Amino acid sequence: MPQPGPSIPRRPRPPPEPMSQTLEFVTKSLDQPFPEDVPRIANPHDMKIAESRGAALVDATRPFYGNHRSASERFHWTLPPEHDERVISLLDWIEQMEWPLANFGVQKFLSTKKRGAVVSNAGFISRSHPDEPVFDWLTLEQAQKTHDRNLQESMATYDPATTTLIFVFLVSPSYNSVAIWRRKLSIPLSLQLRMSKPLEQIKKDLGKSTSIIYIKSPALWSRRPRGSVASTSTSSREKTVAIQAPGVKPAVQVKPEVEKKKPKWWQFWKRITITWGC
After folding, report:
1. Name one Pfam family in it (predicted).
2. Is residue 275 exposed (0-12), middle (13-18) or buried (19+ Cβ within 10 Å)?
3. I need a surface site. Which of 126, 178, 194, 204 has the fewest CB within 10 A?
4. Is this structure's pTM higher than 0.70?
5. Does 14 fall in a domain?
6. Do the beta carbons of residue 151 and residue 75 sit within 8 Å?
7. Distance, CA of 173 to CA of 190 (rounded, Å)
8. 156 is in which domain, residue-wise?
9. Closest CA relative to residue 258, chosen from 242, 235, 277, 276
10. Closest Cα partner for 156 from 145, 141, 178?
11. Residue-wise pLDDT tens digits, 7-18
């Protein structure tokens, strides 16, 4: 038999390459159980928003619903936010808390079953929550009493299933007017899917009725300031205008109030005659 030849020596295996720090950290973390005492991250949808329960709206009663000025002179929409540091800090806080505030608006819409918006007074400090802003829910019916067109149109035309409206206002030192700013928050898709059925049902019920926007005529102002000029949006000659809302039929109507004429003296006599059957 032929004898086997000399064996070929095998090459030694190269030493293993050093593990990267990232891979080493992941490998060790897989072997260790997750500690139970570490706090979990809370769901941003479930974070609570502080409410004033109407206390922050007390100072805004006169500029919101007063008859001392027209709506265009009581609501100032064009002032820059840099006008006051309180407004800037509140708008920044709203931007950081977009998801909880969007959830807050959805819950208010579902509970009231009415169109509306989240409002906050930048100059109000709550005693129960002094370190954070407080918010309230203002319905479209309450906004109609202000006779402000921008406020009513915003509430009547937005889609409550995808958007939450927020209005930040600051009352003037004289309590005669307010500076107001509007922000639109997009509702997260996960929250839209979770609340899709009740939201669509309420939208369907609201779509059967027409949202009326009330504009007060200048002739109805109790005390009109001297030298003031009536704006075209509050003119008594303005006709009814239809504004198409997304997915809502019939459309939104703008209805100016007309001053009621006082009856003449002979009309009183005519009513008395008809009543007595003379």
Report:
1. CcmS-like
2. exposed
3. 204
4. no
5. no
6. yes
7. 43
8. 44-209
9. 235
10. 141
11. 666 666 666 666
